[in-house]
Amino acid sequence: MKRIVCSLAIVLSACGFAQAASSDWFETEGARLRLVTEDAADADGRMKGVLEIDLQPGWKTYWKDPGASGIAPQIDISASINVESAAFSFPAPNRFREGEEVSTGYVEPVALPVTFKVGDPEKFTAIDADILLGICKEICVPVQAKLSVTPGGEVGAADPVIAESYGRLPSAASADFGLAGLRDEGESLVADAALPADAQGAELFVVAPKGWLLGVPVLDASGERPAFRIPVIDRPAATGTIAFDYTLVAGGKAVEGQFPLP
């Protein structure tokens, strides 16, 4: 039996599936949540994890910039042991209408990658994560959950959700697929785009910096090169150089990058 278990572990490792530790499921109206992490950090203290958001049919949750309404996912790991930081990454989102508002997020169950930075990979680590996010059906409900994981404790079987969720993240933008420049025209920002030749239904999602409120970008393909016009609903009175994070989706593929506004 021991030989069989060891052989199975070797096969799973070869497939890229890490041994996993998991919190219990937290259940609430419309969804359930759990946190899954690798069993150990790498030599640099980096540990991959995933927040699984198992939505019930008809329920939605939100992207890092949810729009005028909605709650972006947040994580607080201050109660953890030997954990310095945690940061979400996001797969390409969808847009959906909520009354008169257009929001950005996910309409099906989603696994959000979360990367932890461990202080000392050789020391005991315990993750106590306070999660805040919004889920929505007819009304939006803020959800607060405390999820606890002890990597290296009771280790579970290799869990493909970690590798799969990181594999769904957008690639880095490039000269062939991404935004090529940005112009400020007062009531709107105009971003030139490089899109794949076979791209269909291109959509741009922009993270508005603090103090900015942006409308839904509209693609204009009538010029020499395609461009997105991004309505500016509100902005700070004075700004210096500022960077906008974005995700660009076209032809079933997604890239992410950053463009500066002088």
From TrEMBL:
The name this protein goes by in its record: Thiol-disulfide interchange protein, contains DsbC and DsbD domains
Signal peptide: 1-20
The organism of origin for this protein: Mesorhizobium australicum
InterPro entries, A to Z: DsbDN (IPR028250)
Keywords of this entry: Signal
Thiol:disulfide interchange protein DsbD N-terminal domain location: 43-148
KW Ribosomal protein (keyword) present: no
